[in-house]
Amino acid sequence: MSGTATKLATANPVEPKPKLRAVLVEDNQLDAQLVLRALKKDSFEVSALVVQDEGGFTQALAADPPEIILADYNLPNWKGMEVLNVLRREGLDIPMILVSGALGDVTAVECIKQGATDYVLKDSLSRLPEVIRRALREKNERTLRRQAEQKLAHKVDELARSNADLEQFAYVASHDLQEPLRMVAAYTQLLSERYSGKLDENADKFIGYAREGALRMQVLIQDLLAFSRVGRADLAYAIVDCNAVMREVLQTLDSAIQESGAVVTYAGLPSVWADHTQLTQVFQNLVGNAIKFRGSEPSQISVQAEQSDGKWMFSVRDNGIGIAPEYAENIFVVFQRLHARSEYPGNGIGLSICKKVIERTGGKIWVESEAGVGSTFKFTIPLEGSTEEALTQGSSTEEKKS
Ligand code: ADP
Description:
Blueprint: E1 6-9, E2 19-25, H1 29-42, E3 45-51, H2 54-63, E4 68-71, H3 82-90, E5 96-100, H4 105-114, E6 118-121, H5 128-195, H6 201-232, E7 237-241, H7 242-252, H8 254-260, E8 263-266, E9 271-275, H9 276-292, E10 300-308, E11 311-318, H10 350-360, E12 365-370, E13 374-382, H11 388-392
Parallel strand pairs: 2-3, 2-4, 4-5, 5-6, 8-10
Antiparallel strand pairs: 1-3, 7-9, 10-11, 11-13, 12-13
Adenosine-5'-diphosphate binds at residues 285, 289-290, 293, 318, 320-323, 331, 337-339, 346-352, 375.
């Protein structure tokens, strides 16, 4: 009966039962009736197509994909397990239960490994409804999980797109604003040079404010540009020795260290797989901040690293003014500061650059702090990519005091 299907429908008018669309791959009409009876007796209002071969099965799928497929293992013109190949080819996820006269345990396990959902022997058909219910439940859970994953992937895509748009906007805005701003700054400078003392006192004051505003805006725009460049720069990944990075940073910050009397220590830092320039920016911003936001005590700053859960975890600890917990996340946002510029200089860009660099490198950054006691900035860098030699450097000790 190649390519043909017989429609069998059963219904129980007394109790409303869940509807079930099934395809039976079965050559024996009597067995098909027994299967349907077992389903009807227990719990389903079944509408089923009975097919015997690949042609009939493909037609049944095309007509109306069923919720469940019940397939005999041995058929004269086909094999029950071939159902799975057709489903894969059609990209369909429909549970397939083998209903067979005899199926040894070894064969049954092999069939399940290959993708059959379950199997029921023909002399235990009373098990069939429960097996079907479980298969449908699992299929439903799979669908929900897949939908949730798709939603998440979509959100991640959207977020990446909107981040890229924002970055592009920040770059274009800050880049293109530089030119007109340069004009404003140049002409307010000219105004103040040519007319200072020649107009009235207010005019001098106003020109001074305009000039200050233009200069500050120039700095802000340069910072914004620096921030957007971090995300756009091509990363030159290499093994970076963090001890060498710290030596560079201490040199750059030398005058601030001398002036503040800060003591900076670092010990046995590892080599990591990162972009040298950007990682240096991170250490420089964190150590620079630790010096800048010092308290009344002599400044003690310590930089350390330890391995945990497949990553390096770095910490930059200070005994400075600290940060109240409610600001612990805000401070990583562009231009967010907790103090007036007159108290502590800066534009609030350093930590947002650190965050971007660390996230691009595959890590995370956060702060643990208590106001008035000190702060510990922590960040992670994945171990992967680091060489064996780089990893063992973590056990050597190098200490530097400034
Ligand atoms: P900036 O240093 O220019 O203000 P950052 O983005 O580097 O910008 O830091 C943002 C804010 O986070 C700082 O203004 C300060 O309020 C807080 N902060 C950063 N580092 C420290 C620190 N080590 N101790 C206390 N506060 C800090």
